[in-house]
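Tutorial sheet, problem 5. The two components below are modelled jointly, 310 residues in total.
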Amino acid sequence: MANETTIAAGTVIRGSIEGTGNLVVAGHVEGDVQLSGEVTVESGGLVGANVRAARIVVRGAVRGDLVADEAVHLEDGARVVGDVRAARIAIGRGALVRGYVETTGAEGNRPAAARPAAAARPAPAARPAPAARPAPAARPAPAAAKLPPPKAPPPPPPQRKIEAPAQAPAPRSTGTPASMGAKREPPPPVVPALKKGAKAVKKRSY
Amino acid sequence: MASTVIGAGITIEGEVTTDDDVVVQGTIRGKLQAKEGLVVESGAVIEADVVAGPIRIAGQVTGNLTSSDRVDLANGARVIGNVKAARITIADGAQFKGNVDMDV
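Model answer (C-alpha cells):
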C-alpha cells in the first residue's frame, strides 16, 4: 500500500506522472499519466491528458485518451472526452463519453471472445426491437386519427397549382421571345418553373 | 486524508500546486508549491524549487527551499540548495549544502 499516490482536491499538477503503483486523482492533473497500477479519477477530479494504466476507473472528468491493459470502468458521474481502449470496457449508468471506444484483447484469444460477446449483443438488441414494434403498432391508431388532417392539407397544393398557372403565362411571355430557336426544349424547364412559381407565391403572400 | 500523497515509484515531471498538505515518497522534478505542510520522506527525491508552509525533509532535495514557517532537515536528509525560512533545524546526520536565510 506504500505505492498509493493521492492527488487531493485543491492540488494541481501540470506535467507528466509516471511510475508504478496506484493513483487516485481528486484534484487536477494536466499532463500525461502512465502507471503500471490502477488509476482512479474520483468525482471532482479532472485529468486533462492521456491516461495509460493497467486499470482505469473514472468517476470524474477526463479530457484525453484512456488506454488500459486490463479494464476501463466509467462509473456514474464520469465525463470522458477522448478515445477509450482496453481489453474490457464498462460504461455504467450516468457515465458520459464522447470518443472512439474499442475493446482490444491483450491475448490472441480474447478478441475472439470479445467478438461473440459483441455478436450476442445485437441479438438481444433485435429482441427488444420486436417488443418495440407493438408500441409503433399502438401509435398507428392515433396516427390514423391524425391522418385525416394531413389529407386536408393536400387540397391546398391544388389551390397553389391553380395559382401557379396564373403565374406561368408571365414566364412564357418572357421566355419565348428570348429562346425562339428551341421551342421544344423550353417546356420542361417551364414545369419546374411552375414549382418554383409556387414558392414565389409564398413570397407574394408576404 | 485530504492530503496529497506522491507514492514511492511515482515520478512527476512538471509543476505541482496544492492548497493541502503534501507527502512525497516518490520523485518530483520541476516545481512544487504547497500552501500547507510538506513532508519529504526517506527515499523520496525532489529536484525542484519548493515553496511551502512547514517543511520536513528526510529524503533527497536538490533545489531551493522557501518556507513561510520552518524547515526541518531530519537524519538521513540530503539537501543541496538554498534554504529560506523563519526557523531552520538541521538534525545530526543530515547532509546539507547551500545558503541559509533566516529572518534575523
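Marking note: The two ends of chain B are 36 Å apart (CA to CA). Full credit if you identified this.
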